[in-house]
Amino acid sequence: MKRILLKLSGEALAGPKKTGFDEATVMEVAKQVKVLVEEGIQVGIVIGGGNFWRGRTSENMDRTKADQIGMLATVMNCIYVSEIFRAAGMKTSVLTPFECGSFTKLFSKDRANKYFERGMVVFMAGGTGHPYFSTDTATVLRAIEIEAETIFLAKAVDGVYDSDPKTNPDAKKYDEVSIQEVIDKKLAVVDMTASILCMENKMPMLVFGLNEENSIVNTAHGKFTGTKVLV
């Protein structure tokens, strides 16, 4: 693989604490991504904001404002994880679809490509920059824009199941599933908008558990135990 888009779940980055950051978890991610960068793989990263904010659970404010708070949560996550990556010896940049002063630079495909060519890990924060779109949709959109070969979907769950494994102990895991089946059965890999974007633009996904040992490197090396979402 030449270029991948890695989506990290905010909840997974929180580790056992369930909120905020678990530095040991983030450092483990950094060590794995460094292996890929040293092998010449270009890595773009989108991070969810669920370790700080889940706007759709709040009924006491306007949806647009709640989503804006969520966008800022993803910016905080990307700045934090970017700094841990730097401490691990990588070069990074954080791009957003809106101005954040000197904290970040504005996203464009040309700018992302320039940073990839310099061997940098490119963090794409702030979602799409618009309310009513999730970080799932931002992940697929950015993957398509930067022409990633596939999306690495690193979640708190280790793959795609036919029902929620947290509530159904008999839930069955898929080794492979088509994006059409994901849409038809509403399997909630990513939200519906993101699923349709994947289908229309033929963007495959590899879904796996972030907290499994060496899961990012194993996925890149073909030692994969999660679910392939085929297009």
From TrEMBL:
<feature type="binding site">
    <location>
        <position position="54"/>
    </location>
    <ligand>
        <name>ATP</name>
    </ligand>
</feature>
<dbReference type="InterPro" id="IPR036393">
    <property type="entry name" value="AceGlu_kinase-like_sf"/>
</dbReference>
<comment type="subunit">
    <text>Homohexamer.</text>
</comment>
<keyword id="KW-0963">Cytoplasm</keyword>
<keyword id="KW-0665">Pyrimidine biosynthesis</keyword>
<feature type="binding site">
    <location>
        <position position="161"/>
    </location>
    <ligand>
        <name>ATP</name>
    </ligand>
</feature>
<comment type="pathway">
    <text>Pyrimidine metabolism; CTP biosynthesis via de novo pathway; UDP from UMP (UMPK route): step 1/1.</text>
</comment>
<keyword id="KW-0808">Transferase</keyword>
<comment type="function">
    <text>Catalyzes the reversible phosphorylation of UMP to UDP.</text>
</comment>
<dbReference type="InterPro" id="IPR015963">
    <property type="entry name" value="Uridylate_kinase_bac"/>
</dbReference>
<feature type="binding site">
    <location>
        <position position="67"/>
    </location>
    <ligand>
        <name>UMP</name>
    </ligand>
</feature>
<keyword id="KW-0547">Nucleotide-binding</keyword>
<dbReference type="GO" id="GO:0033862">
    <property type="term" value="F:UMP kinase activity"/>
</dbReference>
<feature type="binding site">
    <location>
        <position position="49"/>
    </location>
    <ligand>
        <name>UMP</name>
    </ligand>
</feature>
<feature type="binding site">
    <location>
        <position position="164"/>
    </location>
    <ligand>
        <name>ATP</name>
    </ligand>
</feature>
<feature type="binding site">
    <location>
        <begin position="7"/>
        <end position="10"/>
    </location>
    <ligand>
        <name>ATP</name>
    </ligand>
</feature>
<feature type="binding site">
    <location>
        <begin position="128"/>
        <end position="135"/>
    </location>
    <ligand>
        <name>UMP</name>
    </ligand>
</feature>
<keyword id="KW-0067">ATP-binding</keyword>
<comment type="similarity">
    <text>Belongs to the UMP kinase family.</text>
</comment>
<keyword id="KW-0418">Kinase</keyword>
<feature type="domain" description="Aspartate/glutamate/uridylate kinase">
    <location>
        <begin position="2"/>
        <end position="208"/>
    </location>
</feature>
<dbReference type="Pfam" id="PF00696">
    <property type="entry name" value="AA_kinase"/>
</dbReference>
<dbReference type="InterPro" id="IPR001048">
    <property type="entry name" value="Asp/Glu/Uridylate_kinase"/>
</dbReference>
<protein>
    <recommendedName>
        <fullName>Uridylate kinase</fullName>
        <ecNumber>2.7.4.22</ecNumber>
    </recommendedName>
</protein>
<dbReference type="InterPro" id="IPR011817">
    <property type="entry name" value="Uridylate_kinase"/>
</dbReference>
<feature type="binding site">
    <location>
        <position position="50"/>
    </location>
    <ligand>
        <name>ATP</name>
    </ligand>
</feature>
